[in-house]
Design a protein that fits this description.
The protein has a single domain, classed as Metal-dependent hydrolases (TIM Barrel). Strand 3, helix 5 and strand 4 form a beta-alpha-beta unit. Helices cover 49% and strands 11% of the residues.
Length: 371
C-alpha cells in the first residue's frame, strides 16, 4: 500500500519516443508553436493507446518521481482556439489517456484518491487555471466543468478576467459580482477554489466570501522573496484562519533572483509557510512542468511568447527549463521528499507529502454536503 503523495504538477513528465520525435520535428518546421505542442500531445495519446513500451516508460517516470496523485492543468497552446475551447480540447485528450492506461485514473473525490494511491495507481486531479475565461461569463459552465471531472478551479490567471484580478495585473481589484456567484456555485458543488494566481484583493475577497476552505495550490511566500506570484503574510494568515491549504512551487524564478540557486530556497519558502500556516496546511505544488531541460529550444522560445501574452513581464524573470541542479527533471522529485525528511519528523513529512491536501479536500467536500 503506497502513501498518498500529491503534487500540483500542471503537466506530465516529458517522455518522447521515436514516433513522437518524428511528429515534433515535422510540426516545428511547419506549424505555429502552439499548434506544434498540441500535435505532440495528440501523438502522446496515440502512443499511450498503441505502445506498451511507451506506457511503461511513462509509468516509470511517475514511479521515479514517487508521485501517485497529481493535479494537471487542462490547456492547449493553440492560439486559434478560445481558452474555453482549449480546455475542452485537452479534456478530450485526458479522457483518451484514462481510457488507454489502466493505472492512470481520473480522481474526483478524496476517497477515490486514497484508493488509487493504495492500489499503486496514479491518480489525476483535473484543474483549470483560468476559470473566468473557461466559463466565458456563464456560471452554469462551472457545473459543466465539474460534471466533466474538473475538481480544482483557479479563479484567475495573471490578468484580470470577469471573475476577479490576477496577480500580475496593474490593478488590484477584488471579486466581481459574477465572481461572487462563481464562488457560491463552486461551494455548492464541492469544487476547490484555487487562488494561486489571484491578486491580493481577489484572494482576500474569496477567503472571506467562500463558505468552504480555499486553496493556494502552487505559490510561494513574498516574505522570503517578493515576487508577484507569491502570497503576503497577510494572505497566508487569512488562509490559516479559513483552514485552507497552500502548496509550494519548485520553480526557481518564483523563489529567488539568484542565477544558480540551491534547492534549499524551495525549503525556505516551505518552512516559512509552515511557520505561518502550521504544518497541517502546507504541501507541495511544484508546478514543475514538462518544459524541463530536455524540452526543444524552438518550443521554449515560442512558449515564452505565449507567456508574455498571459501576463508575465520581463521583471518576473520567467525562464523555461530552469532547474536547481538537484531538480532538473520531474523524475528528480524525490529530492523534495529527502529534504523534508531532513527537516521534519515522519508524521509531518507524511502530512506535507499528501495527507494535508487530502484532508483539506475532505473539508471542502464536507462543507458542500453540509450546505
Amino acid at each position: 500500500m503506497s502513501q498518498p503523495t500529491f503534487d500540483y504538477h500542471a503537466g506530465t513528465p516529458w517522455v518522447l519516443n521515436d514516433e513522437m520525435e518524428t511528429v515534433l520535428a515535422a510540426a516545428i518546421e511547419r506549424e505555429p508553436v502552439g499548434r506544434a505542442s498540441d500535435l505532440v500531445a495528440d501523438e502522446e495519446v496515440r502512443q499511450l493507446r498503441s505502445s506498451e513500451a511507451y506506457r511503461e516508460r511513462v509509468r516509470a517516470a511517475y514511479d521515479d518521481a514517487g508521485v501517485n496523485l497529481s493535479s494537471v492543468t487542462l490547456l492547449s497552446s493553440d492560439r486559434s482556439l478560445s481558452y474555453a475551447e482549449q480546455v475542452q480540447a485537452d479534456l478530450a485528450r485526458w479522457t483518451a489517456k484514462f481510457d488507454a492506461v489502466d493505472w492512470l485514473t481520473k480522481v474526483t473525490s478524496p476517497a477515490q484518491a486514497r484508493r488509487v494511491a493504495a492500489d499503486d495507481g496514479v491518480g489525476i486531479v483535473l484543474n483549470t487555471q483560468n476559470l473566468g475565461k473557461a466559463i466565458e461569463g456563464d456560471v452554469d459552465e462551472v457545473e459543466r466543468l465539474y460534471n466533466q471531472g474538473v475538481r480544482i478551479m483557479q479563479l484567475t490567471y495573471n490578468r484580470q478576467n470577469e471573475v476577479g484580478t490576477g496577480c500580475t495585473d496593474r490593478s488590484d481589484g477584488g471579486l466581481s459580482n459574477h465572481g461572487l456567484e462563481v464562488v457560491d456555485r463552486m461551494n455548492d458543488l464541492g469544487a476547490v477554489v484555487d487562488l494561486s494566481h489571484c491578486g491580493r484583493e481577489t484572494t482576500i475577497d474569496a477567503l472571506e466570501h467562500s463558505d468552504a476552505p480555499v486553496a493556494v495550490t502552487h505559490s510561494c511566500c513574498q516574505a522570503v522573496y517578493d515576487h508577484d506570484r507569491g502570497k503576503s503574510d497577510a494572505e497566508l494568515e487569512a488562509l490559516r484562519d479559513a483552514d485552507g491549504y497552500m502548496g509550494i512551487v519548485a520553480v526557481p524564478f518564483f523563489l529567488t533572483d539568484e542565477s544558480s540557486p540551491s534547492f534549499d530556497v524551495f525549503f525556505e519558502h516551505l518552512e516559512h509557510a509552515v511557520e505561518v500556516l502550521g504544518p497541517e496546511r502546507v504541501g507541495v505544488g511544484s508546478d514543475f512542468s514538462s518544459i524541463d531541460r530536455g524540452y526543444p529550444t524552438a518550443l521554449k522560445e515560442g512558449t515564452m511568447e505565449l507567456l508574455k501574452e498571459v501576463g508575465f513581464r520581463e521583471e518576473h524573470g520567467v525562464e523555461l527549463g530552469a532547474g536547481f541542479g538537484a531538480m532538473e527533471r520531474y523524475q528528480d522529485w524525490p529530492v523534495v521528499r529527502e529534504g523534508l525528511e531532513e527537516r521534519y519528523d515522519e508524521a509531518t513529512v507524511r502530512k506535507i507529502l499528501g495527507e494535508n491536501f487530502l484532508r483539506f479536500w475532505e473539508r471542502v467536500v464536507d462543507a458542500a454536503d453540509a450546505g
